[in-house]
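Field log, afternoon session.

UNIT: design team B
ACTIVITY: writing a sequence onto a fixed backbone
BACKBONE:
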């Protein structure tokens, strides 16, 4: 059986790929004037992929999906606000290329999510 942390990395990679591809598409279509909209919409797409994969495959949760979604959504809201602020800082003030800034922000958010998910969001089955 694959260790949970490896499943988390694969799940996160899938969600990150979905988020990044949507971001690229939106930035290509809308331009940099719509940075926050592109960031927020792509983040929402990654949120859906991430929640479903983490709940069902990574943590194999047996908890209430409603309460887990509420906790996950609260963390996602915090991540979205911090991510948007970080994007604006990196692009507007530090003049980092928008696609590189998005990559950096996604990495920062992923860094703290595993511990929070495993401790506060999902209730894993025994032996998972």
């Amino acid at each position: 059986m694959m260790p949970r942390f490896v499943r988390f990395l694969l799940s996160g990679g899938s969600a990150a790929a979905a988020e990044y591809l949507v971001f690229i598409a939106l930035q290509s279509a809308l331009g940099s004037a719509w940075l926050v909209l592109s960031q927020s919409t792509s983040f929402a797409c990654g949120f859906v992929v991430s929640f479903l994969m983490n709940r069902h495959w990574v943590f194999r949760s047996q908890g209430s999906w409603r309460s887990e979604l509420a906790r996950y959504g609260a963390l996602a809201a915090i991540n979205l606000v911090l991510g948007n602020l970080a994007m604006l800082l990196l692009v507007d003030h530090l003049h980092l290329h928008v696609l590189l800034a998005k990559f950096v922000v996604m990495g920062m958010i992923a860094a703290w999510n595993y511990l929070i998910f495993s401790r506060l969001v999902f209730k894993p089955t025994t032996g998972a």
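LOG NOTE: The longest helix spans residues 65-93.
NEXT ACTIVITY: expression trials, pending approval
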